[in-house]
Amino acid sequence: MQSTVTMQIQKLESDLGIQLIERGKQIRLTEAGRLFHEQSLQIVQNLEQLQTNLSDLQAGEVGHIRIGVTEPTASYRLPPILQQFMSQFPRIRVSVEFANTPILSERLLKDDIDFALCSAPDLGTELYFEPLFREEFVVLLPENHPLAERTVIAPEDIRGHRLLITSAICPYRRKLEMVLQEKGTISLDTMEIGSMTALKHYVESGLGIALVPKIVLKPIPVGTTVRLISGSLIDMTFGLLCKTSAYPLKLARSKLYQFLKQELVERPV
User: Fold this and answer.
1) Residue 206: CA atoms inside 13 Å, Cβ hemisphere, count?
2) Is the pTM of this model over 0.90?
3) Range 86-122 burial, b when 16+ CB lie within 10 A, else e
4) pLDDT digits (tens, 9 = 90+) for 158-217
């Protein structure tokens, strides 16, 4: 009875339509057999590497993660955290997209990014938001500004002074406008500056005052001073955002999500 190996070789020769082994007193590989042997070794190695890669992917050790981040976290918090993460997981690639919360929400729903670090989205969306910390805001103003004489500035005190604000769709601006309206301050002298992180430079140039995240004022620009604003209504809740259908995240995305969550909760501003 022919051995199983012999039968498998004969079947392989039949499938390939070529003789692989010279049969006689001694069994030797034909030229085609030698070629098949050399190249099949590479195929076996590739299959073994593929199995390893798939196992690593399943374990979350490799992958490509696309995240979206708003300012100031994108520039002031995220870089050192990502450096730590990528040192621990060198085979995980991370792409970072900068945008505001409304745009990041749209990108999530279109599956253009995996998750985001941002403020809370509008209600009624198909998104899951996990709050992590509150972004503390302060008033930045030129040293010679009339309001600089006050220790604490109330939202209604801003009326009559030029206020530098961000774009109309910025959640920070919308929150500010809501607070001012609650205080009865409807009409404001404003100047629109499109970047949250750029506001401090415009205050430094004497163009007005601004409510800015405290974290961006390290160091405080020359010729400016900082005052607290009364109440905590102006502070913004910040956290992790993803599609409800994708939560809880899996594979490498889960590792980064949990890493960011731990780092941001432990080091609130």
Assistant:
1) 5
2) no
3) eeebeebebeeeebbbbbbbebbeeeebbbbbbbbbe
4) 888 998 988 777 777 777 777 777 766 656 788 999 888 899 999 999 999 998 999 999
